[in-house]
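Thread: Modeling a multi-component assembly for a lab meeting

Hi all, long-time lurker, first post. My supervisor asked me to bring a structural picture of a complex we are working on to next week's group meeting, and I have zero experience with this. I have the sequence lines for every component (772 residues in total). Could someone generate the structure of the whole assembly? Inputs are pasted exactly as I received them:
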Amino acid sequence: MASRKMDKYELILEAALKVIAENGFHGSQISKIAKEAGVADGTIYLYFKKKEDILISLFQERLGGLIALFHESVKDSASADEALRTVCNIHLSELENNVNLAYVTQIELRQSNLELRVAIGNVVKPYIQLIEHILEKGVQEQSFRADLDIKLTRLLIFGSLDEVVTSWLISGRKYSLIGQVDKTVEFFLRGLK
Amino acid sequence: MASRKMDKYELILEAALKVIAENGFHGSQISKIAKEAGVADGTIYLYFKKKEDILISLFQERLGGLIALFHESVKDSASADEALRTVCNIHLSELENNVNLAYVTQIELRQSNLELRVAIGNVVKPYIQLIEHILEKGVQEQSFRADLDIKLTRLLIFGSLDEVVTSWLISGRKYSLIGQVDKTVEFFLRGLK
Amino acid sequence: MASRKMDKYELILEAALKVIAENGFHGSQISKIAKEAGVADGTIYLYFKKKEDILISLFQERLGGLIALFHESVKDSASADEALRTVCNIHLSELENNVNLAYVTQIELRQSNLELRVAIGNVVKPYIQLIEHILEKGVQEQSFRADLDIKLTRLLIFGSLDEVVTSWLISGRKYSLIGQVDKTVEFFLRGLK
Amino acid sequence: MASRKMDKYELILEAALKVIAENGFHGSQISKIAKEAGVADGTIYLYFKKKEDILISLFQERLGGLIALFHESVKDSASADEALRTVCNIHLSELENNVNLAYVTQIELRQSNLELRVAIGNVVKPYIQLIEHILEKGVQEQSFRADLDIKLTRLLIFGSLDEVVTSWLISGRKYSLIGQVDKTVEFFLRGLK
DNA sequence: TATGAATGAGCGTTCATTCAT
DNA sequence: AATGAATGAACGCTCATTCAT
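Re: Modeling a multi-component assembly
Sure thing. I ran the full set together rather than chain by chain. Output:
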């Protein structure tokens, strides 16, 4: 049944997230994920072609959900300024509220080979495009500088946010990530104007 | 003789850099590095305790050299603005001029275990501290905003630069990295003022 | 199925016994044992945690069986004299009839590390205790000397038998081991009375 | 110079004894022995053809010295009884007084391959022959039984003594080895008469 | 669909021995 | 005689993937 299939598919993804968060990327064998999911090793290969596919799907399903959330939230923004603030806010708050996901995506899954990195890049791309659209909108609205290099700036913004999250995780999450939003957005907005 | 010992040590590091750049982190077996260096497998263990130590040394020797270059160059800067520009310039130009090093440090060595990640962090730390000093100097000179959150801002700057380099590599190096310096610095300076 | 699992477990033990007897302890790689057993290298690790565990199990299963045989046989003995004779008889005849086992336990497995030596000691201990019980019984029956040092004497007896077997193997098994029983027992009994 | 050569030869043997006693057979690499002896690794190969030869020489030089001591001591014995007592006495007292040698010969060097075992056998052979001579003398003197199987009995005696020493070592040397002489000799003499 | 026993390729590391100096 | 840097063969163990049931 389709519903049962989805159940088991989700079950395995959820198990993978938990196992990787607890054991790290290199300590997460298929057998461990299978055990956590309550299925046999072989069953996993009915839903995923290779081990890597679990990780790619994990990215797609979980981060893809975030992307949708971004779009949804940005739709209501009156200005590019507000949209950018909303994006930063969601980026940091969602990851602060989902530490396992943050840990796995920022730290563990980066210990992966080129193929997986590329797949991760594909998942992140729509997010970077969203930032791009906001920048374009800001320029059109004459809220942002007309001479802005949009392709470059979107990277500067994404890279900053990414580093802030990673640094927060590595430091042991001793401070609030959401508390960084305002000053981060201010830095961006000044750079954009 | 000390010189010969250094020769072989350097020989192995150079070989490792080349092999990792060509074959990726997971495709770089000790035997392959030894062959490239023209020494026996066992010889590598006269200079490095574990395989990982080659990678750590690679980071320390090569990137550590960059850090020294940063300090040297910044010393002559009249202002914080100029110092920041110098740092960005060196960061991007050195990696553009040393693609193997860029590829290995930005892409391959991040696929490593915790111990190596920690060692990498230790190498990067002085660099982030250098950025921090420049920010402090700028605030003292009243060139930068007094309300700047220095701990946060240094991350924003480092994360931006890091992402710019990685993105350039993944895109296939289709444009000039140094060409991004001016616009990147301008974005930073506006954010800082 | 349980029976199949036992089959493979036994298959590997049997193969190990044969391979060690033919190639010596240090010439018995996992791959050789696996090949002899007709299984893949990895399969061995489904039944044994480490290579050493094969050897320990070999000892426990094969010599442990002998110990049970000793107890069984001794039960019916009317006197301590007879019990001692039975023990010597079984000790020498069983090893003479199972040369591979004799060779592996007397010669090859003694070339092992501390952990294995300890495990071997644990298997041999019940046997030495059996000898001890016979000696105690003999003293109670006033068949053996009352001033016998039982802890010492059990070693003298075990050491003698052990040396007789080893010497027989090293000499190339040019004579009958069972033929030594009567004179050996007589030497012991005179010493005990 | 011959004397210097002997010096270094002895130096290496002494170092080997110490290193094996401290680190066990498998923890005693050539480099460790060389360091302990204060010579270069390569120097060892000027005095010994292979690593094994050090061990064989260790046996020959140290245990060979004991054999000479046995012959010397037995010469003065009035009777076979006394000679046997002397042999047992020396065997146990010398090893009790030289624990390193006892440990290395009884425990560590037995973890060796066939070639070394054979060499060890050759060193032990004169000792077993000495026991044989005493037995023959005893039979001639009509002190021992005329029907004694000398080839067998010498093994029984040697095996007993060997086991007593090994057991004493493994037990942690919690009692006096020399204190076992009288009861051991009594057991032998009763068996011989 | 689901199972889980079986597979077997793959690799870091050690260390006895050599040999140019 | 002495050195010690260099050699390179050798092997236990893991784990992603398969497939008979």
